[in-house]
Amino acid sequence: MSRHLVLLPAPEAEWARLPPEEHEKGMRSHQQFHRDLAAGGHSIVVAGPLTPSAEAVSMRPDGSGGALVTDGPFLESVEQMVGFYLVDSPDRDDLVRICTEFSARGELIELRDMVADGEHDHGGAS
Q1: Are the beta carbons of 58 and 69 closer than 8 angstroms?
Q2: YCII-related domain: which residues (predicted)?
Q3: Would you say 76 and 58 are in contact if contact means Cβ atoms under 8 Å apart?
Q4: Which end of the chain is more exposed for a tag (fewer CB within 10 A), N or C?
């Protein structure tokens, strides 16, 4: 069993302007994604939407032992992370297939594999 992060980037401003029917279509697509994952033996560990990127708080080292805290996301871009799924999967290829079908229904998806314990030094973490 391996763990994967399904990130859902989207253009927040564009999404907010969509009519209710499009939001309902999106909800049905997410429900289908849940059914497809379950049918393939994949399990959702946790999932959820995120607050708007304008409400993010970003922190970065200030170079003198402290941290600079700013309102807003790290990067200004057309697309922002609006939600995610953390999925346990027995079959990565099948998970890619299911995510591809989900994307074909209108979702932008970035699939990332989680590094197994002990395989990665987290860089600046101490």
Answers
A1: yes
A2: 15-99
A3: no
A4: C
Q: Which residues contact 41 (CB under 8 A, 6 or more apart)?
A: 89, 90, 91
Tell me, yes or no, if the pTM score tops 0.85.
no
Q: How does pLDDT run along the chain (126 residues), one tens digit per residue?
A: 999 999 999 888 887 788 999 889 999 999 999 999 999 999 999 999 999 888 989 999 999 999 999 888 777 777 888 999 999 999 999 999 999 999 999 999 999 999 987 665 555 544
**Cross-strand partners of 32:** none
Cα distances from 124 to residues 61, 66, 120, in angstroms, run 11, 14, 12
For residues 117 and 125, give the distance between their C-alpha atoms in angstroms, rounded to a whole number: 14
Only one residue has tokens 């849940």, namely 34
